[in-house]
Design brief:
eight-stranded mixed sheet; mainly beta; globular; about 40% strand; 1 helix
């Protein structure tokens, strides 16, 4: 995958640029991710220092657990980021990036919590909780 990737939320109020490597995409099926997205969350990961954000005033941060926060666009509601407290990495929703990214889906986590209305049939590794 390229070392520079750009992307945005649905309405374009938030634009992002990464200047370093991105982790393969992980599908998270936990109840929080399902409720936030309506299905499951597909995210990559980058070093926080490698992320540049334009439109920070359009971002709302939500404390989703005692140890992490999620961000979304105030205008269009696009899910943007998930970050653990004191982490030097940030999860970025993979669908925000402009193509081509070169990203590939790696595996699924929190499969024990996935919705009962879909199956995982892509042949990727599945973990009941985190990997």
């Amino acid at each position: 995958m390229a070392d520079v990737n750009t992307g945005s939320c649905l309405c374009g109020a938030v634009r992002l640029r990464t200047s370093g490597p991105l982790r393969d995409v992980v599908g998270c099926h936990c109840s929080q991710c399902r409720k936030q997205t309506g299905l499951y969350l597909a995210a990559t990961n980058a070093a926080t220092a490698d992320l540049t954000i334009d439109g920070k005033d359009s971002i709302s941060w939500y404390r989703s657990s005692p140890t992490a926060s999620r961000a979304f666009c105030k205008t269009c509601g696009s899910a943007l980021f998930w970050v653990a407290d004191d982490a030097d990495q940030i999860s970025i929703m993979a669908g925000l990036f402009d193509k081509p990214t070169g990203l590939r889906m790696s595996h699924h986590i929190y499969c024990a919590d996935k919705g009962d209305f879909y199956e995982l049939t892509d042949g990727l590794r599945q973990f009941p909780q985190s990997d």
